[in-house]
Amino acid sequence: MTLQQFMNEAISPWMRKEGPDSDIVLSSRIRLARNFVQVPFPIVANEEDELRIYDFMRERYEHVSFQDYEDFNFLSIGELSGVEKRVLVEKHLVSPHLIEKDQASAVLISKNEQVSIMINEEDHIRIQLYFPGFQLNQALEKAFELDDWLEENVDYAFDATRGYLTSCPTNVGTGMRASVMMHLPALVLTQQINRMIPAINQLGLVVRGIYGEGSEALGNVFQISNQITLGKTEEDIVADLESVVHQLIEHERRARERLLEQSGTRLEDRIYRAYGVLEHSRIIESKEAARCISDVRLGIDLDIIKHVQQHILNELMILIQPGFLQQYAKKSLTANERDVFRATLIRERIQLDK
Amino acid sequence: MKCQECQKRPATLHLKHVINGQKREHHVCEVCAKEKGYVSSPDEGYSLHHLLTGLFNFDSVPIESQGQGSNHLQSSRDLQCDKCGLTFSQFKRSGKFGCAQCYETFSSRLDPILRRVHSGNTKHHGKIPKRRGGHLHMKKQLASYKAELKALIEQEAFEEAAVLRDKIKQVEQGIRDQEAGDDA
Ligand SMILES: [Zn+2]
Ligand SMILES: [Zn+2]
Fold it and tell me: Model pTM?
């Protein structure tokens, strides 16, 4: 398989579309946690109970379409290889928790991969909907429609006082997690982000690196999401998140301008060096790769690098992860082998845009 | 300023929560903020252990229910959900409920936990299921009317209470109609 073909399969089709503010906001996501009222939650459910949900979802929704989201593919986690499972996680289509359990867990994924519905994760179903760029409201609107559509056939666990009942009390109420993925290289470079994160936390929002471990944000990509799910309407939660994201966008843009004005040559040097590393290295660790990819993407957004496509960051950040590397290699790789393979894959990807 | 939880590290986070209309400030260090559940990451990042450490602290330092601490723990040990069999102590360990019924079973223990996790909130204000919504919406309204009625009677505002009583009858009839419709 050529790299082009591989990437066509590896990158979700919706990711190729541009959205509003997509120079900074990579994607917007709404996730809704829902449960069937009569069945115990997966944590205590026996296999028979879990299979009731699994079979119901498969019979009702496999190869069914919801609006433009065509042809739900039903993937049974127990039938997938280790690498296949890992790839689903790396594409953010399922959570790491879902692939840990083989018993009756599954996922429905729309053809364009914009919609995924996890089955028997911590809750019976978890609906996820992605939009490119900054489109939280659109994502919420669609997620509600999808939720109503599912509810036509499902009696949800819902209580007038507590709202949608979830296994974990941290999700009860709206059951909603709204989030955006943001590329914030200038705020990191100028060290402003460290001061901003505690302030954002105070507003009931959570900031974390989406790639990498703990608080480290590989590739300067951050996820901002709501922490509380109870006591506020979904619209208010989204509005609060939106206003913070707007401010972050403005700060990031201003920081980029200032960097360009005050240390333009230095910035250009950094960006071209990163490009050189990606174009020529033979061994590269994920950390260095992520840093260089972030720099190159900044170069593209600032019009310093002109011939490379903007979505290289979205693509490469996914492709350089262990699961994808091994899927492309069609065999399992040691850490050292992965570093070599990663460098090769990045070089080939850079060549595509020449 | 020292962290109010560990009294050791400097307080770097200053959090304001509005709980029941009262403003509360917390001054904590980043370590304690994460450990005690003042801040947390959503999704997989939220550690149940942290939630529960927070919960135990809440029980052992009862701000609202001083003097009831021992009772509180005593009775909670016996609580068990008759639908899924989960006990309250099991819940404390895992941080997860076993079924929808658990929310009813443990409702008397739930408010402090929810307040802690959701910045002081205990009640849902969002979406209502579309198909079953009308019904639930009316029940929600009925509950708030009844609370209002009780208050009016306590205030001896009998004229207003009479008006409200008529409204309650209407809503109750609406619910009966809807339920009859569901059966048909
Ligand atoms: Zn502390
Ligand atoms: Zn239960």
Answer: 0.78
Tokens encoding B88: 């309250």
Query: What is the predicted ipTM?
Result: 0.85
Give the model confidence (pLDDT) of A317-326 as tens digits: 888 888 888 8
Q: What angle do CA A144, A30, A36 make, to 5 degrees?
A: 60
Q: Are residues B22 and B71 in the same domain?
A: no
B93 Cβ contact list (under 8 Å, min separation 6): B52
Are B65 and B12 within one domain? no
Both B71 and B40 in a single domain? no
Instruction: Answer yes or no: do A228 and B123 touch at CB < 8 A.
Output: no
> How many residues belong to chain B?
184
Closest-CA residue in chain B for A173? B124
For residue B33, which residues of chain A lie inside 8 Å, CB to CB?
A: 201
Kindly state whether residue B124 falls inside one of the protein's structural domains.
no
Nearest by CB to B97, from A155, A167, A176: name it.
A167
> CA-to-CA distance for B27 and B5, rounded, in angstroms?
8
Q: What is the pLDDT of residues A25-67, one digit of tens each?
A: 999 999 999 999 999 999 899 999 999 999 999 999 999 999 9
State the DSSP code for B6: T
What would the pLDDT profile of B171-183 be if each residue is shown by its tens digit? 888 878 777 765 5
Contact criterion met (CB < 8 Å) for A160 and B124 = yes
Site from B99, B125, B137 to mutate, A interface, most A CB atoms within 10 angstroms: B99
Q: Which domain holds residue B138?
A: 134-183
Among the partner residues A165, A174, A176, nearest to B103 by beta-carbon distance? A165
Ligand closest to the CA atom of residue B9: 1
